[in-house]
Every structure is written in C-alpha cells, then in structure tokens.
Amino acid sequence: MNEHLHIALRLAAGGVPVLPLRRGKVPFGNCPTCAKNACGGRPNMKNAGPCCCPGVCHAWAAATTEAAVIASPAWVAAWRQAVCVGYHPGGAGLTVVDLDNAEAIAWAHGALPATRTVPTTRGEHWIYQGVMGSSNAVRPGVDIKSTMAYARWLGPGTGTMTALPDAVRALAVKEPSPARPPQAVAVPARSGSGECRHRTPVYLERGICMAEQRIAEARSAVHTTVYRTFLAVLSAHGGCGCLTDAHVTRLFAAAQAKGESPRHCSDAWANARTRLGL
Question: How many Å apart are CA 114 and CA 108, to the nearest integer?
Fold first, then answer.
C-alpha cells in the first residue's frame, strides 16, 4: 500500500480528516466540473452546497475521515502523486500554531503555554486542543491553522497537548483602527423655507434621541437601519432648516458606534436626501 495512503487511513480512523498534498505541499486543484465552484462546493465549506465529485477537490474542504473515499480509485491516483499527507486541524478539534523560524519559536516559549510540539522543515508546529478561526501572519513568522485551513502531517510530535489558551485566540484579534471623529454633513434648508414649522425645539431633540436609540439597538441589517433612520429624520426635519451640523454629527456618531464607516454614513445620508428631493 502507498505510504501516504497508509498514514491517511490510520489518521482517519482516529478522527483526523485527511487529504493528499501535491508538489509544493498544496492541495490538488479542482477538476474541470468543479472549477470556479460551479458544482456548489463541498458540504463542509462555508456557504457551499453539496458536491458529488469523486475526485480530490476544494482544497481543505476535501479532507475526510471516510475510508471508502480515501481509498477510492480517484483518491488512490492522487496519493500516488502526493508528496505528503495534509489534514484539517479544525475538523479534528485542533489548532496549529505554525512557527516558521527560530525567532518565532523563541517568542512562543516565552508567550504561550507548552503543548504538543512537532518539528517542521524550518520551525515547529505547536498543537492545542480546541478550535478557532485560522489566520496568517498574526505576528512575524507565526500562522494559525484551525478551521477552514490545512496543515501537513509531520508525525505525532512530543509533549502533552493542552487546551487552546486565550493567548493564542488573542493573536487573531485585530486591533481596532484609530477612532475617527464623526463626520457631519451640512443640511441646507429647502429653497424658500425660513422659519421652522415645529412649535418647540423639544420635538426635534426627541426625534434625534429616538433616531440614536434606534440605531444603537440594531442587532442586524445595520446598513439598512441607518439608512431608514436617516430617511425618517430627514422626512420630519429635513425640509424646514432646523437640522444643524451638531444634530447630524450625533446621528453619524451613533452609526459609527455600530461599525459603520464615515463614507457609508455620508452615502446613506446623501441617498436619503436624494430620495426625498432635498
């Protein structure tokens, strides 16, 4: 039996999803039928549908623990061309911290809990029990491979595997961009309008407060909520000239607090004005 196929079957029996890796230590490319994901993808790919392709398609999503698939004629042909065995760490409930050089290894010894270690060509794989999102270049010489990724099988390694620590999860958390001051857009009064038609400033203040609250409470479809809120405010107050830059700044600040960019705020405001003919 092919050595790679033998290793793959042994790993699969232990619950580790495997796939063959070709020259360059990369997955086999999609077949013509599956090119550009025309088939809908593998069932375990994000936002993908079923695929009945018997070949080794769809990169990491081809990884499987099914012996009948691994030893099928199409896969056997791929194993003959394979240079090594790959596996899907996330599918096995694992996270691999890929340390690519001596400097990265030295950093890991000081920053991360000890765990099972596997030597690589240039560095080490530190393997933890637990799953997280994969991320490349989380720091110089350090990649994280877990869900939706593959890693090379280089042996069982040494040491006791420990639970995935917060220190590793934190590596994939991007630092927020520096806060930008909210951008306001001046709202010109309609041609010919002068005095505000509202009896007291309280009506306007209440409307702005309600708009801020509506945006702050949005749990989904934030873009749509922001646009509709801007539209409602302009419908009530955009034609009489009572809105000031300070009011619009408050609305933009509420939207940006929900993750909207200044550009989207400006676009949503402009689109609402256009719809109302302001």
Answer: 9
pLDDT of residue 198: 60
Phi first, then psi: give them for residue 256, nearest 5 degrees: -70, -30
- pLDDT tens for 179-199 read 455 554 444 444 334 455 565
What CA–CA distance (Å, rounded) separates 162 from 130? 9
How many of the other CB atoms lie within 10 Å of CB of 170?
9
Residues 6 or more apart whose Cβ sits within 8 Å of residue 63 = 17, 18, 19, 86, 87, 88, 91, 150
Among 9-18, 176-185, 226-235, the range of highest mean pLDDT: 9-18
Q: Are 120 and 151 in contact, with CB atoms under 8 Å apart?
A: no
CB atoms within 10 A of CB 184: 20
Token pair recorded at residue 278: 């302001």
| Average pLDDT of span 18-36 | 89
Helices of type H across 24-183: 67-70, 73-81, 102-111, 166-169
